[in-house]
């Protein structure tokens, strides 16, 4: 299974086989169809697929766009947001890390203008860039865009650091960071790469990054509803959602720095214009040439030994397919290019990152439709995992209750076996297994997050059912041990003289 979110790696063993229900409640869709219907794809088939998907999975809302060559085939919205408003083709949503492809384009515009050399050190254009590692002096602009700079979450877990409020602050906080590898050697997905790239655009162009995008990218493409923000609260969006046991729960977005790397907020209608430009050699639907065809090819081509190009990834399961996923903690997105056929696809949802992302499944279905195949409607793996965890959580609670109820019998049995105290204590330690797992969960989560490092709040948003299970397991284990300790203490034998302790004959001498 291919990587379905830019921060989440799928593991087949994580999909549990416990299924508690067969169908989730349906949400009535509201469809806003923009049409340049070409006859290549039946828009009604897309509508049916999205309607069925929302009904089967409980996804609150989504917006999609499908383009072919320089034409918009279909763009629509489905479902409702957390305020109850209908989601349409013009509903603003964050695209998260899809923003990286915009930053790459901005840099390439400066390259083609002769103002930036991809293979020059970053510090030539951004003197403020520096790290607590002398090797950082050699990091090139190309390495930032290919994410081979040597920076990584392993060496600098940016999610766990104080969050910046601007691109300048984001670059400044790297002064204390080290590199994980020699620049130009290994690929590490790391948001600061693109934060530095966006700051470079500011410094070279002499204008704020948001203004540059508005004038040189959004404006020429007619993406009038698009903007970029530094913090999620700046976007003033409705609450997105997380999933718990298959149900969508509206929660506020985590307040983190998203500028440059994952801060663009836009609409499905606007992104249709973006896809056309990407599949049309850098030329927009209205004839605007943002970059040359050679620049587009370069942004779509990864370096040798890597699948990551410049804001785009090569799908290792399907040659020629390009994609990039994007994740906030309460919104997710995916864009796909099929250069061989000229199709472009984008999916936006108001559901956060999880074990498997909704946009990836929907995008796969839209790819099937574009090929003339029947799309498959299936639930994300995380829903099945949640059902399994729900069953496990209930089982732990029930077993703990039984153990507490039988604690008196257990205490008598320990007395009968005359076990030493240290052995009794040792045999209770398995009940505390969940304690270290819970304590080190953020670190363990980095294996699932493909090396990304976060804290408890981030794990709570992505895997709430895991935290519930571990919390219940910890409470259950402590409760069982406490109940047994109390029973062991209250059922201990009494001395014949009234003193407490083990039953022993009195050794006091009888007076003559």
UniProtKB/TrEMBL annotation:
Keywords: Carboxypeptidase, Hydrolase, Membrane, Protease, Transmembrane, Transmembrane helix
TM region(s), chain numbering: 387-408, 429-449, 461-486
GO MF terms held by the record: serine-type D-Ala-D-Ala carboxypeptidase activity
Ranges for domain Beta-lactamase-related: 46-349
EC number, UniProt record: 3.4.16.4
Xref: InterPro entries: AmpC-like, Beta-lactam-related, Beta-lactam/transpept-like
Any matching Pfam family: Beta-lactamase
Keyword Zinc applies: no
Enzyme category, top tier: hydrolase
PANTHER family: BETA-LACTAMASE-RELATED DOMAIN-CONTAINING PROTEIN, D-ALANYL-D-ALANINE-CARBOXYPEPTIDASE/ENDOPEPTIDASE AMPH
Name of the protein: D-alanyl-D-alanine carboxypeptidase
Native species: Nocardia otitidiscaviarum
